[in-house]
């Protein structure tokens, strides 16, 4: 069961904005030919941006650049999914302003100001014995997708104001997610800020 805030006439504006601390060129999602000796995909912890060092999700050095509207693969995360804990991806525009959050748990799927849905039953069934799951979040062509393996478990096309807003998502960060959770850092289409490292700048032990 899903609800679209815009279709029901509710204002979809997400009122939180932040001041950018750095500027960098947009990374496109079209990868160059990969030399055989270069590793383009690495597993990084989901460095929590809600810290003093990260200016409580305002420091762009704690974000990753990615052209989400044109990325075929989106953001791939391995995390523990429960009913009580939210997995949160903060989305930013090119100026570094927050435009919303994608959140997921076993209770539901949310996209700030635009979507609120019950979690698919298959989400619970797909977890391993420890409750962990590798999943991908995509905004390709204005369609919100939640993918596990090759299967699309959730899909919803954005329209109007929502589509325009999230088409501007070119950075992301993780909020309130532990070092035990990870994401796939794709060097061919992502550029990490200085504080996004394999140990989250010393905050996560390797």
Describe this structure in words.
34% of the residues are buried. The strands form two sheets. The protein has an eight-stranded antiparallel sheet with strand order 1-8-7-6-5-12-3-14, with no helix packed on it. The protein has two helices and 14 strands; from the N terminus they run E-E-E-E-E-E-E-E-H-E-E-E-H-E-E-E. It has 206 residues and is mostly beta strands. Helices cover 6% and strands 33% of the residues. The longest helix has 7 residues, at 160-166.
Based on the model shown, name its key terms.
eight-stranded antiparallel β-sheet, mainly beta, 206 residues, six-stranded antiparallel β-sheet
The average pLDDT value, as a whole number, equals: 83
Uncertain segments are: 4-33
The largest β sheet comes out as:
8 strands, antiparallel
Distance between the termini: 40 Å
Computed Rg: 16 Å
Output the helix-strand order.
Answer: EEEEEEEEHEEEHEEE
Give the oligomeric state of the chains in this entry, treating copies of one chain as homo and distinct chains as hetero.
Answer: single chain
- Give the number of helices: 2
Structural class: mainly beta
Helix content: under 10%
* Inertia-based shape: globular
**Percent in strands:** 25-35%
Based on DSSP secondary structure assignment, what is the total number of beta strands?
14
Strand order of the largest sheet: 1-8-7-6-5-12-3-14
Task: Write the SSE topology.
Blueprint: E1 2-4, E2 41-45, E3 64-65, E4 75-80, E5 87-92, E6 98-104, E7 108-111, E8 115-118, H1 121-126, E9 132-138, E10 143-148, E11 151-157, H2 160-166, E12 171-175, E13 182-186, E14 191-192
